[in-house]
Design a protein that fits this description.
heterodimer; A: mainly beta; B: mainly beta; 7-stranded mixed β-sheet; 0% helix; 52% strand; globular
C-alpha cells in the first residue's frame, strides 16, 4: 500500500516556464512534508518542507502548496532552469515520528 | 547540513555472499537511518541506528539479513547478508538534523547481485 504517491513518473518543461510536481498521500496522520531532489549517482538533497499548519511555503524559485482536505501537495518551480533537471521525491512524516515515507519520484526534464 | 560519505560507492557481488556498507558523517548525530531504493521504486526505510542500542528494523526487514553496527556518533555500517539478485538496489544512509527534522543523505551504494 503506497501511502505517498507521485503519479507522474516524468515531466518535461521548457526553460523559463513553471514546473508543477504533484504528490498525494493517504494517511491523515502525516503532518510534515518534504521535497527532495536527486541527481544521478548522488543521494537525495533536501529542497523544501512544509508542516500541516501551513498551506504554503516559499523559498526562492521553489514553492510548496499543501491541501490537507485533498491530501495533496505540489511543488512549483518558477522559472524552471536546465539545472533543475533531476528526480524529485516527496516525503511525508507521521505526527510525532522521525520516519519519512517517500513517493516513487518524478523525473523532471527542463528543456533549454 | 551534515556531510555524509559512503563506501563502497558501488559493487557487484555474487549470490550468497555478504557486503558491508560504511557510512561516515562529519559531525556527531544521534539518529542514523538506512534506506533502500530498488529500481523504479521509492526510498524505503530499512532501519534506524542509534548509538549504544540495537537498531530498530522496519516491517519486512530483519537483523539476520541486514545487521547494523553503530559504534559511535559519526559512523555506522549496514551488512547485506547472503545476497540474492533481489537485493540489487541502491543503499543510502541518512542522518537527521535534530533542530529542523530534515534528513540528509549520503551518495548511496549501488549494489548489483549476480
Amino acid at each position: 500500500d503506497q501511502q505517498v504517491k507521485q503519479n507522474s513518473p516524468s515531466l518535461s518543461v521548457q526553460e523559463g516556464r513553471i514546473s508543477i510536481l504533484n504528490c498525494d498521500y493517504t494517511n491523515s496522520m502525516f503532518d510534515y512534508f518534504l521535497w527532495y531532489k536527486k541527481y544521478p549517482a548522488e543521494g537525495p538533497t533536501f529542497l523544501i518542507s512544509i508542516s500541516s499548519i501551513k498551506d504554503k511555503n516559499e523559498d526562492g524559485r521553489f514553492t510548496v502548496f499543501l491541501n490537507k482536505s485533498a491530501k495533496h501537495l505540489s511543488l512549483h518551480i518558477v522559472p524552471s532552469q536546465p539545472g533543475d533537471s533531476a528526480v524529485y521525491f516527496c516525503a511525508a512524516s507521521p505526527s510525532g515520528t522521525y520516519k519519512y515515507i517517500f513517493g516513487t519520484g518524478t523525473r523532471l526534464k527542463v528543456l533549454a | 547540513s551534515a556531510v555524509i560519505s559512503q563506501k563502497p560507492s558501488r559493487d557487484i557481488c555474487q549470490r550468497g555472499t555478504s557486503l558491508t556498507i560504511q557510512c561516515q558523517v562529519d559531525s556527531q548525530v544521534t539518529m542514523m537511518f538506512w534506506y533502500r531504493q530498488q529500481p523504479g521504486q521509492s526510498l524505503t526505510l530499512i532501519a534506524t541506528a542509534n548509538q549504544g542500542s540495537e537498531a530498530t528494523y522496519e516491517s519486512g526487514f530483519v537483523i539476520d539479513k541486514f545487521p547494523i553496527s553503530r559504534p559511535n556518533l559519526t559512523f555506522s555500517t549496514l551488512t547485506v547478508s547472503n545476497m540474492s539478485p533481489e537485493d540489487s538496489s541502491i543503499y543510502l544512509c541518512s542522518v537527521e538534523d535534530a533542530e529542523n527534522y530534515e534528513q540528509y543523505f549520503g551518495p548511496g551504494t549501488r549494489l548489483t547481485v549476480t
